Amino acid sequence: MKHQKVVILAVIVLVIALSGVGAFASNASAERMPQRFIPPKPTLSISGNQATCSVTVRAPGKTIDATLELWQGSTLVASWSDCRTGIVVLSETVTVVSGLTYTLTVSGTINGVAFTPQSVTN
């Protein structure tokens, strides 16, 4: 009976010890590995002569500097910028010429490092 209690106690101590090591290892690797950054996807919706341009850039705890540009061919139609920590939301409506093709591009930096510009054409 005493031997069973010792074995059960030893198993409990072992389980607790291994749980702590796993939690430490998990936490340590999370600190070394950078958080993934999902490239922002701009949205461009054109209805009649109104273009709604928007993008959300998320990078928790990091400084985001983002610029959203609407182009018609090689002509810059409009541009919006913002710089914040954690999240930048740019959403504007602008008058356009119906029937033409427009490209909306987002570019910028996360903690001073440029992210790959993303575009959408409509």
Structure, described:
- This protein has two domains: 33 residues; 79 residues, Immunoglobulin-like (Sandwich).
- The chain has one helix and five strands, in the order αβββββ.
- Strands 1, 2, 3, 4 and 5 form a five-stranded antiparallel sheet that branches.
- It is elongated.
- The N and C termini lie far apart (78 Å).
- 16% of the residues are buried.
Number of strands: 5
Helix content: 25-40%
CATH architectural category of the largest domain:
Sandwich
> What is the CATH superfamily of the largest domain?
Immunoglobulins
Number of domains: 2
Shape: elongated
The CATH class of the largest domain is identified as Mainly Beta
CATH topology of the largest domain: Immunoglobulin-like
CA gyration radius, whole angstroms: 25 Å
List the helices and strands in order: HEEEEE
Number of helices: 1
The averaged pLDDT comes out at 82
The chain-level structural class is: alpha+beta
Roughly what fraction of the amino acids lie in strands? Answer: over 45%
